[in-house]
Structures are given as structure tokens and as C-alpha cells.
Amino acid sequence: MRNRLLAAAGAAALAAAVAASPASALAARTLTTAPTPAVPTFVNGLSQAVFSTNAADWYSGEVWVQAPFDSDNDGKLDRIHADFTAPGEVRTTGLKVPVIFEDSPYYAGTANDYFNWGVDHELGSPPATRPATPLWTPRNTSPTISTIYESTWVPRGFAVVHAESPGTGHSDGCPTSGGTNETLAAKAVIDWLNGRAPAYTTQTGDTAVTADWTTGKVGMMGTSYNGTIPEAVATTGVEGLEAIVPISAISDWYDYYRANGMVRAPHSSSNPTGNNNAFQGEDLDVLADVVYSRLDETGPRTICRPEIDYLEAHIDRATGNRSGFWQERNYMKDVDNVHAAALIAHGNNDFNVMTKNAAQFLAALKKRDVPHMFYFHQGGHGGAPPDVLINYWFTRYLYGVQNGVESLPRSWVVREAASCPPRQSTATGDQSNTATLTVADTSPFRIGFVLTVPQTNADGTISNTTRMITDIPDSTHLVLVSAVATAAGQKVANGTVVNLVCGNANPTPYAEWPDPASSDVELHPTPGAPARGGLTLTPQGQKGVTETLTDDASIAALTSANTASSNVRLVYQTPALQQAVRISGTPTVSLEMAFSKSKANLTAALVSYPPTGNGTILTRGWIDPANRTTDHADNPVRPGRMYKIDFDLQPKDTVVPAGNRLALMVVSSDRDFTVRPAAGTQLTLDLRNSSLTIPVVGGSSKLRGAIG
Description:
Blueprint: H1 7-20, H2 23-28, E1 42-43, E2 46-47, E3 59-66, E4 79-86, H3 89-92, E5 97-104, H4 150-153, E6 159-164, H5 180-193, E7 199-200, E8 214-223, H6 225-234, E9 241-247, H7 254-257, E10 258-259, E11 262-263, H8 284-291, H9 305-314, H10 324-327, E12 341-347, H11 355-367, E13 372-377, H12 387-399, E14 411-413, E15 424-426, E16 434-438, E17 450-456, E18 462-474, E19 477-484, E20 497-499, E21 508-510, E22 518-526, E23 532-536, E24 546-550, H13 557-561, E25 570-573, E26 581-585, E27 588-595, E28 602-609, E29 616-623, E30 643-648, E31 652-656, E32 661-667, E33 682-697, H14 699-707
Parallel strand pairs: 5-6, 5-8, 8-9, 9-12, 12-13, 13-14, 23-25
Antiparallel strand pairs: 1-2, 3-4, 3-7, 4-6, 10-11, 14-21, 15-20, 16-19, 17-18, 18-19, 22-23, 22-33, 24-33, 25-32, 26-31, 27-30, 27-33, 28-29, 28-32
């Protein structure tokens, strides 16, 4: 174990030097009082950076925590490699601090070259095998695994712990892509932090080490896989895990690699265009192969080959059905155990970890009255909440500071620029070179958000600058992180409008998510193929009206949506909206369809068409028609017979501008995401018995007013 904190040794050395010095030398010196040790400090309910920012002053080390399993089958319990860093005061004054913990399979790196499954084949007939990942060289993670959070959280009085998932870096065991051992490995680290599990100074030694520097209160945080593990561990109900901040996290691995019985890939881009998905054909076995980085295997890595072969044998790319194998990786089944307060973050346009993963976990926590908050931005994969929200969260639930975070809005959505609600005030009097801005009213603003301040220059021109708001002491003053209008002749002129510009730093608050004012509105298609039909609030009156499309996986869904006339898709659109409409929640479709073959893909998309130019696919959904009643088993499809097929699209929060048209698009194969069989399968839609349901803020009256 390493120890960067040398203060104690330094103090002893100084005392010895003073004792050995001649009296004349001592008399000539000016002795100063040692600085007062830092203590956790909170202002406006936020942890303050009062501890040293110098890494040389911190206390750090590495350990191997004993896990309660043997996932590499070597007859010994696996040991999980972890490092820790804490303020130096944990050694100099006996301070005990809570922990920010990130667990990951990625620290040692991932394979540069690997092979996904082929997807250009008939449905139900996947390739028998795929090539194994070539040998690659991982990054050494000892003694330091990562330093991603230390500079932010250690000065605020938290320790930071990182742990390597089984089968990665210097950890024993094998990667299982969301399997139970990965959950229990991270749980074991929390158990060690609370004195319930042993840890050792080396991977194979027997010198034990305890975490006597922590309170045992733990908050987990991370993005993607690193955000998934906090949700998984939370479902164990482990004592000591008080809060989690999962960012773009998976709540059910089936919903990551499958959709309603369909083999459906995640996407590597937030803008799927048909040929830009590096993840097409990825699956659980591929991911395990890619992260398998055990550093104790210096030659070809073979210890975990049986586990990866097991994954390959059980993923079932032939049917796409849910099974016990997949249920092991479904954290939703254990969500009743969650007590950790969850600040969930996700991107509206995350087509890697789909938004359903966040929405269903959030819904479960709401139902169980678990403290929760949702940050929903307009980007793709990743994207943490503003630092101020995370600070509130960890300060409240790890330090126990009653900062009122429970009374804040539960939902924070980053609004589109065109839909940004005004949050502004005016400057009172001309002001120059000041970090305290006097304004007419501070109520629109929040500490930690970023204020845009127009500055009038000496030549009369205007230049905008931004500053974080660090304090709001009263109803007319904003304290900024640094002064504005500092140049010669520059000022914030009387009456200048200062405001919060919508963006990731300034999300818009709502009471809850989905918006409580949102309700489902049903829309119905009217004929128009091969061009675009209509989409109305009243059902198609005539019985037996059908329209047919022909599958062609070589054509991207986005291309189909923006082709004026096509037999590859069916499109039904509303009239141009006379006012903006906000969608908040999960759209669904109910389609009455027949298929020319017993196996087919079925895809639905919600599209927004501007007055001119190409439309945008807002969200999508997929289903295997054979899984129309359950994703656990096939219910065979008889060609030519009509079936009622209901399924969900990915949850969404977006404002569709006035002038745009909302549309339902139905296609078969989705080139970006699905298996791509040979072209030719025909799908026939019964219009009268089909509908699109969208969650509209303001409900049917709002949408009725918008479409006229």
C-alpha cells in the first residue's frame, strides 16, 4: 500500500531538527503556528473545497478486496483491485470521510480490434461463431487505477475509491457483462469500507488492511457501464450505499441488446444515419471479450475463455427471447431492494443505452418512494448533471446535511434553444469590475447555474460573458465566481438583461418526470402510401383500408423518412402544428399487421418534419412480431393473418416547434439497429385498427389546438 501523505513524517523530522539546533539559531528564527486542520465545511448546503488540492498532501493506497465468489474457477475466492484517495486529515487528525466510488471494467483499457456478430442474414439464422478478440496489451493500473474524481471531491472532504471489475486489470475473476459476480464485486468493496469484508495489500498476500479512514457512507457514480454498476449494486440493498449518480446507465441488459424479442443493437452515434454504427452486431460475449484485460496473464488470455464461450452459447441471437440467462442481468427484478437516493442522468438522444433504461428505473423508484431526481439533456451518450446538483446530492446523503435537496424539483430537462423559458432579470444601475451584481429580482436564478451577462464596452459594442452564480444573498444581489466588466471603460449597463441560457449547465426544472401535466393522446393514420398519409385525432372510418410496405434493410430509416414516395415505409403525418407541442414520456404504437413471411422485423418511429428540409427521427421502437404477447417465447406468425401488435418507443422529452408536422413511420428492418435479412418481406397495415399514442403536456386539448 502506498501513502502519499508525508505530513506526519515531516512534522517528526521538523521537531527533530528544532531539537538539534543551537539556541542562537532558534533565537534568530520566526516560529509560526501550524495551520488549523481543515474540517468539512458547507455553505448554502454545498460541500466546500477547503481541503488541500495538492495530491502530495492526500492519503492514498491500493488494496485487493476479497469477494464472496470464485468466478475464474481456480479454487480461490476472487480478489478485486481497488485504490483510494482521501484528504490528508484522515491520518493527521483522525477525520473520517464518506466515499465517492466508481467501479469499472474499463480502467485497464479495451481491445482496439474485435469482431461483432454478422447481421446480414435471414432472421433466426445467425452465424455459428465469430472470431475471438486478438491479444492486446492493457494499461497497468497499479498503484493508481484512476484519478477521474479526485481533484473535485477530495478537496471537498470526500474520499474517492476506484475498483476494477472481475477479469479486468489487476482483479481476479472473469468479466460477465452484467452478471451477478460483477455486482457482488462492487458490493464487496462497500462491505470492506464498512468493515464487513477483508482486503489485502497485495493480490496474493495475507497482510490485511482496513478502511479506518471512512464513515462507511458511500455514493457510487459513473457513466455507461460505470453507471450501470451503481444501479446493480443498489438493487442488493447493501448497507452503506446511501446515494448513486448513474449516468447513461443500463437497468436491464436485455433492453440494451434486445427489444421486445428482437435482436437489436445499441448505436455508437446519437445521429443514426444507416452506416455509422460501430456497435451493430455487438452482444454480451463481444463486450466481455473486449474488456477482458487481466494483467496476470502475460501471454494469451485463456483463464476466462470458458466464461466467454458460455456467454456466446447463451445469448440466443436466433430467437432474441428473454431467458433466465438474461434475467440474471435484469436489475429491475430486484429494484424493491433499492434504498440509495438516485440522481439519474440520461441523454434524450442516447441510442447507445436507450432512454428506456433510465425511465423504467426512475419509475420504479418513484413507485417505492425512494429519493430520486432526473437530469435529462438533449445530447447522446454520457453527460453528467451540473456539478451543483451532484454536490447537493452527495452532501445531503453522504454527510447528512439538511440542505433541502428533497424539496427541489425532481426533474431537470435541458430545453432546446428555441423552447428555452425566460429566466432573466435586469441590472440595477451601471456596474463595473464587480463580482456582486445588483439586479431587479434574483428569483429566476439558482446557485451553481451559469449566468449570461452582456457587457457594454468602451466603444459602445456589446460582448457577452458567462459566470457561475456562487451565492444569492438576497432578492437583489447575485454573487458570481469572478468579476464582470473588468476592462477599461466596460460596464454592465443599467437595464441590461442578464439571463440563464438553456444548455447542459442550466436545465429547466419540472416537478417530476414525465411531466405530471402530460397525458396520452391517441392519433390515427389515414391513407397516403406510397407518399405520406394523414395522422388525425379521429380514427379512420372505413373498414378494411390497408397499406403495404416491402422490407429492404439496405435503406436507412432516416433515408426512408425523407423520401417523398417509397414502398419501403409507411408514413402518416399531422397537419403543421400551429403551436409548439411538448412530448414528455413514452410513446407507444398499436398496429394491426400481416406479414408475408413467418419471420419479420417491425420498427416504428416518431418523426418531426420541419416546414422545409429533412425530418428528424425523434425516437424509435422495435419488436419481433412473434413476441407480440411476451418477450420470453415466440408465438408463431402465420403469413397473411392480421395480428394486433403493441409496443413501446424509447421515452422522450422534446418540444416540437410550431410549423413542424409530427409523423408515425412504420418500416420493417432498421438498418442501424436490427438484423438485416434479404429484401422482399411484405408488411400490411390495417389503418382503422392502428394508432400512435404520444404523451403530450396539456393532453388532447393541447394537441387538438395545435393541429387545428
